[in-house]
Amino acid sequence: MRAAEKAQLRARALAARLQSGGDQHGITRNLADALRPYAGQVLSGYWPMRGEADPLPAMAAHSGPLCLPVVTGKAVPLIFRAWDGKTLEPGPFGTSHPPAPAPELSPQVLIVPLAAFDRAGNRIGYGGGYYDRTLEVLRRDGACVAIGLAFASQEVPSIPVEAFDQRLDMIVTDQDVIVPAGD
Ligand SMILES: Nc1nc2c(c(=O)[nH]1)N(C=O)[C@@H](CNc1ccc(C(=O)N[C@@H](CCC(=O)O)C(=O)O)cc1)CN2
Ligand SMILES: Nc1ncnc2c1ncn2[C@@H]1O[C@H](COP(=O)(O)OP(=O)(O)OP(=O)(O)O)[C@@H](O)[C@H]1O
């Protein structure tokens, strides 16, 4: 069963990430390079937790509006609030997000946190399906670019794909920028 296989991959990848991490300078350098062509566009990032690769320095170097994801409930797409680079309040599952007065934005470029990924652009997150639901809606409404961010150590040979899975357009690691071959 794919969900069980994914759960096992997720648990292993999260444990490995906490244990070994990676080269944060490489993350910042490669992510800043990957974002350069998108100067001026609305960029969503994330507030890192649990040993995730840290997108904040590269976000700070982006010349354009920034936003962060907000979890507003179970099994619903994320919303995104404009972020001034400072103001945060605690959200569910250990997340942090901009408080309500910040306007809602629709990101054109998303930095997507990963538990594990493969070279074809398939990903596993924490299992809430939040980014799958969110990318489905954003892609239905128009073009957006999903950039997965992870340490190279989070790569696995192959992730089982389910019907609702949304693929990444690019994966940035501390070692590499990976552009999956289209199909
Ligand atoms: N830094 C960061 N922010 C993010 C995400 C992320 O992966 N990383 N998200 C990416 O989607 C969204 C938050 N989604 C999350 C969904 C579940 C869990 C989580 O801890 N789940 C529990 C199980 C919870 C349950 O089912 O009761 C767990 O993994 O132990 C965390 C974040 C939005 N913000
Ligand atoms: N577009 C969707 N519509 C309805 N349900 C969905 C959709 N996308 C994902 N789901 C549900 O979300 C659950 C989690 O999916 P999955 O294991 O792929 O999560 P994940 O990709 O690790 O999580 P995340 O996207 O939050 O990082 C699945 O049980 C699936 O049924």
Description:
The chain has 183 residues and is of the alpha/beta class. It has a single domain, classed as 3-Layer(aba) Sandwich (Rossmann fold), CATH 3.40.50.10420. 26% of the residues lie in helices and 19% in strands. A hairpin with a 5-residue loop joins strand 4 (89-90) and strand 5. Bound molecules: ligand FFO and adenosine-5'-triphosphate. The ligand Nc1nc2c(c(=O)[nH]1)N(C=O)[C@@H](CNc1ccc(C(=O)N[C@@H](CCC(=O)O)C(=O)O)cc1)CN2 is lined by residues 46-49, 52, 69, 71, 78, 93, 95, 113, 125-128, 130-131. Pfam families: 5-FTHF_cyc-lig (PF01812). It comes from Paracoccus maritimus.
List the SSEs and their pairings.
Blueprint: H1 2-20, H2 24-35, E1 43-44, H3 56-60, E2 66-70, E3 79-82, E4 89-90, E5 96-97, E6 109-113, E7 116-117, E8 123-124, H4 130-141, E9 145-149, E10 170-172, E11 177-178
Parallel strand pairs: 1-2, 1-6, 6-9, 9-10
Antiparallel strand pairs: 2-3, 4-5, 7-8, 10-11
The structure holds ligand FFO and adenosine-5'-triphosphate (ATP).
Adenosine-5'-triphosphate binds next to helix 4.
Q: Could you list the spans in which at least 5 consecutive residues all have pLDDT below 50?
A: none
List each distinct ligand once. Answer: ligand FFO, adenosine-5'-triphosphate
Radius of gyration: 15 Å
Helical content class: 25-40%
CATH class: Alpha Beta
Head-to-tail CA distance between termini: 25 Å
EC number: 6.3.3.2
Catalytic activity: (6S)-5-formyl-5,6,7,8-tetrahydrofolate + ATP = (6R)-5,10-methenyltetrahydrofolate + ADP + phosphate
Protein name: 5-formyltetrahydrofolate cyclo-ligase
Keywords: ATP-binding, Ligase, Magnesium, Metal-binding, Nucleotide-binding
